[in-house]
């Protein structure tokens, strides 16, 4: 059962993409708030996403803030004999710096951001669990403005000793070019396909309206001569 809308979205996107990536295997995604970095059971692998984008909402003072440094920890295991895999996931929380409460708040994410993060997760799964060439990892800080310096004292991940990796300028430029090419390759709607008064749908509507008005006028005149 999903505990939040974001959790449901994570599972929905993960299951859909894994059905395409590995249709012969059965994978599950489990949210585990107690997951620890580098504490792995035998046969398990780790993937760490350090620069996800998320919005936080303080449950005490209702303050909201955007962060480009959301940390997500994944532990992964594949039982090749049973063709079953498991992913445990933890999204690290942040403290509200406005009210100073000790409450750790969860982040919410847009579906498009979750899809990119799941793509990275599947890339890591291919490499670590299947021994394949996973492909290209996306850097989720290239195509959005900087949200300001990261405040480690309010970050749960920093308090547990996870150091934030900062991508080089070369990697950021490469990712920006990749995003631009991807955007340019998307199919666009043909010009004039929107709803305007000259479109076929509107022409049919006005023609039908004119016929109706003509019919009513003819009926009125005919009844006047009777």
Q: Can you give a write-up of this model?
A:
It is a single-pass membrane protein. One of its GO terms (biological process) is protein insertion into membrane. It holds the Pfam family Zn_ribbon_3CxxC. With 226 residues, the protein is α+β, with helices and mostly antiparallel strands. It has one domain. Helices cover 37% and strands 22% of the residues. The chain contains 5 helices and 7 strands; from the N terminus they run αβββββββαααα. Helix 1 packs across helix 2. About 6% of the residues have low confidence.
Termini, distance in Å? 73 Å
Order of helices and strands: HEEEEEEEHHHH
| Beta-strand content estimate | 15-25%
Secondary structural class: alpha+beta
Shape: flat
Number of helical elements: 5
Number of self-contained structural domains: 1
Layout of helices and strands, plus pairs?
Elements: H1 5-21, E1 26-31, E2 45-57, E3 64-79, E4 84-91, E5 94-95, E6 104-105, E7 107-108, H2 111-129, H3 156-159, H4 169-185, H5 200-225
Parallel strand pairs: 1-4
Antiparallel strand pairs: 2-3, 2-7, 3-4, 5-6
Helix pairs in contact: 1-2
Domain 3CxxC-type: 51-161
Membrane topology: Single-pass membrane protein
Transmembrane segments: 198-218
For this entry, give a set of tags.
226 residues, alpha+beta, 5-stranded mixed β-sheet, two-stranded antiparallel sheet, 5 helices, 22% strand, flat, metal-binding, R-trans_p
Short description:
Residues 51-161 form the 3CxxC-type domain. With 226 residues, this protein is an alpha+beta fold.
């Amino acid at each position: 059962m999903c505990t939040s809308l974001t959790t449901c979205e994570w599972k929905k996107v993960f299951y859909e993409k894994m059905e395409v990536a590995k249709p012969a295997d059965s994978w599950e995604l489990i949210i585990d708030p107690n997951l620890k970095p580098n504490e792995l059971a035998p046969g398990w692998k780790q993937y760490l996403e350090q620069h996800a984008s998320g919005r936080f909402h303080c449950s005490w003072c209702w303050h909201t803030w955007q962060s480009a440094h959301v940390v997500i920890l994944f532990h992964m295991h594949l039982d090749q004999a049973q063709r079953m895999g498991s992913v445990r996931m933890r999204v690290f929380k942040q403290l509200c710096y406005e009210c100073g409460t000790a409450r750790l708040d969860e982040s919410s994410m847009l579906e498009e951001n979750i899809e990119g993060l799941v793509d990275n997760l599947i890339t890591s799964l291919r490499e670590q669990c299947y021994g394949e060439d996973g492909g290209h990892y996306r850097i989720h800080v290239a195509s959005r403005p900087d949200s300001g310096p990261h405040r480690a004292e309010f970050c749960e991940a920093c308090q547990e000793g996870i150091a934030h990796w900062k991508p080089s300028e070369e990697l950021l430029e490469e990712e920006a070019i990749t995003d631009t090419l991807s955007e340019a390759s998307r199919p666009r709607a043909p010009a004039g396909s929107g709803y305007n008064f000259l479109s076929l749908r509107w022409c049919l509507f006005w023609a039908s309206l004119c016929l109706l008005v003509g019919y009513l006028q003819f009926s009125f005149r005919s009844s006047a001569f009777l």
